[in-house]
Amino acid sequence: MVQRWLSVVLDLVTTAIAILVVGLAVALRSNSGLTGVALVNVMAITETLQLLIMQWSSLETSLGAVSRTEDYAKTTEVESTDENIEPGLRDWPSEGSISFNGVSVRHAPDKPEVLHNITFNIPSGAKVGMFGRSGSGKSSLISTPFGMTEITSGSVIVDGTDISQVSPLRLRGSIIGLPQQDYIIPGLSLRDNIAPTYSNRNGEGEGEQRPDDERIIYTLKLICLWDKIRSFHPEATRDTDILDMTLSSDNSNDMMLSPGQMRLLCLARTILRVRPGSIVVLDEPMSVMDSELRSQIRHLFNKDDGPFGKCTVLMVQHHMDTLLDFDLALFLVNGRISEMGHPRELLNKENGELRSLWTSNTHIEEYI
């Protein structure tokens, strides 16, 4: 709409200039050839003015971006980047227990609190589902163990250690997370995307090292992605050659994954980091998957001998058919825990909010 209005205004300006030129030519009895040349140049002035205004707008936008970047660099507090391992935390967490004790959080000092007096205990190895409508505080809750929110009161204890006493770098490297937004690095191989090296910048130290190709391939088979990846290059003679394929985000000759396949790839990346006693935080891990694929993936989270069998799982879910897969369910409303307990107990609760959300998605009589 703005561009159309700009074109109309410039056309009117050009018309006014053309009328002025013709009027002067008639009044001054100018040479007709010179008048024609003048009119041709006047008619071309519209495109020139439009290009000038667009470039000026682009310049203003770029200068604004530079200014905001500079303000961010000057005003944002720099987090600690100490890479030294704190004493006693080399293998932390090793059990996977989590306690929220009266936790209230906000996203910035000048922002209101988004979680209020959150209290619950998660034993080692438990599978916890977090439910609630949009804006209820689920994302803020799962961001808190990573130190991505500001705790205004209370404490979060992981394996007996208050996370406020752990450096952000160490904290985010110790707790495993799968965000809702999938990401790949175009131009890198499948191997480099699914299993980057977790050692320090110089490739030294005690960081996690890349798993071998056999384990990567086994994980891709586990999540039902390997056959699809092989189909991109059926002429490959060795499985390891498939891992050298380059990932792409456009319609090039490289491997381009659909949203569902990209989600599975990110899930495989998470599985490769899991070890006994890990804490795994998953934000909608089965989003953009159809019901058939979701039913195949669900068993990975609740089988004792599965990849998540010996670790603690916190999962945000919108698919209510997974409710009974969890040991503990939390239902959040406006940043507070409205209901908490075993899923079957909550479904038997008359007039319960989780029961109400469930009945809007399925037939509750089949499950209680």
TrEMBL record:
It is a multi-pass membrane protein. Keywords: ATP-binding, Membrane, Nucleotide-binding, Transmembrane, Transmembrane helix. The chain crosses the membrane at residues 7-28. InterPro entries: AAA+_ATPase, ABC1_TM_sf, ABC_transporter-like_ATP-bd, ABC_transporter-like_CS, ABC_transporter_C-like, P-loop_NTPase. It comes from the Eukaryota. Its main location: membrane. Residues 98-359 form the ABC transporter domain. It is found in: Membrane. One of its GO terms (molecular function) is ATP binding. The keyword GTP-binding does not apply. Pfam families: ABC_tran. GO terms for cellular component: membrane. This is ABC transporter domain-containing protein. The lineage of its organism: Eukaryota, Fungi, Dikarya, Ascomycota, Pezizomycotina.
